[in-house]
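About this split. The held-out portion is used to measure sequence recovery: a designer receives only the structure tokens and must propose an amino acid at every position. Recovery is the fraction of positions where the proposal matches the reference. Here is one held-out target exactly as it appears in the evaluation file.
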């Protein structure tokens, strides 16, 4: 995910190495670019010294990444019935209000499925809606 976001945003080269678990990984530079851009923090709060690049990305975390990357404004309402327990509910509602997501259970689309892993197809749809053609 870091590589895709870093590329689409054309983020500059990082000034430092911020994570201790990504040395030599193909995504190392991208993870550091996202950190320096304020898009990601790390996966082991509060230290945030690890990136955990081998883990799957849940839909709720994708919402947070997109919200930070795009500096999305606050949402005017709660769009989904299944995200109340998510720490990322605010971000989920922001990407819904911005038209980046419509939900995970068409045609009702009243659920976001926050803990489901983002599929490649979903990622492509998120990116298309967020950054256009």
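Reference sequence for scoring:
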């Amino acid at each position: 995910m870091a590589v895709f976001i870093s590329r689409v945003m054309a983020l500059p080269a990082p000034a430092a190495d911020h994570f201790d678990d990504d040395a030599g990984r193909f995504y190392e530079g991208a993870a550091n670019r996202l950190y320096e851009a304020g898009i990601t923090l790390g996966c082991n709060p509060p230290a945030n010294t690890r990136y955990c690049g081998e883990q799957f990305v849940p839909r709720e975390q994708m919402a947070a990444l997109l919200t930070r990357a795009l500096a999305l404004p606050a949402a005017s309402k709660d769009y989904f019935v299944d995200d109340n327990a998510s720490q990322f509910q605010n971000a989920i509602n922001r990407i819904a209000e911005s038209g980046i997501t419509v939900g995970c259970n068409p045609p009702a689309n009243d659920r976001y499925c926050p803990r489901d892993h983002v599929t490649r197809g979903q990622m492509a749809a998120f990116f298309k809606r967020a950054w256009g053609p």
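Annotator remark: The chain has two domains: 1-55, 59-131.
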